[in-house]
Amino acid sequence: MKHICPVCGYDDLQQAPYDADGNESFEICHCCGFEFGFDDIHEGHTFESYRNKWMSAGATWFYEQSKHEVWELSGGVNTVHSLV
């Protein structure tokens, strides 16, 4: 089962960002680079604050080799907004 990044809408996370007990996966999103359990817990970012930082820096892919052939930033971010 694939999971969706709550920061950018990338729909190919291998693990849920947090388990049922709220434990972080420490997975890094290939699109925005958010690391669940580090960028939120240790760096103090909310999903929205990290998204704004990432987008203002150009919304570049963290792992370019994982970029989908067809990817629209607005589509991913709109997916996130429809989830919250």
What does this entry look like structurally?
With 84 residues, this protein is mainly alpha-helical. 25% of the residues lie in helices and 0% in strands. It is globular. The mean pLDDT is 85. The longest helix is centred in the last third of the chain and has 11 residues, at 73-83. The chain has one domain (1-73).
Cα end-to-end separation: 20 Å
Q: Helix count?
A: 2
Q: What share of residues are in beta strands?
A: under 5%
Average pLDDT across residues? 85
Radius of gyration, taken over Cα atoms and rounded to an integer in Å:
12 Å
Question: How many domains would you count in the coordinates?
Answer: 1
**Which structural category fits the helices and strands?**
mainly alpha
Can you write the helix and strand succession as a string?
HH
Biggest sheet, in brief? Answer: none
Globular, elongated, flat, extended or rod-shaped: what is the shape?
globular
Helix content: 25-40%
**Count of individual beta strands:** 0
Low-confidence stretches: none
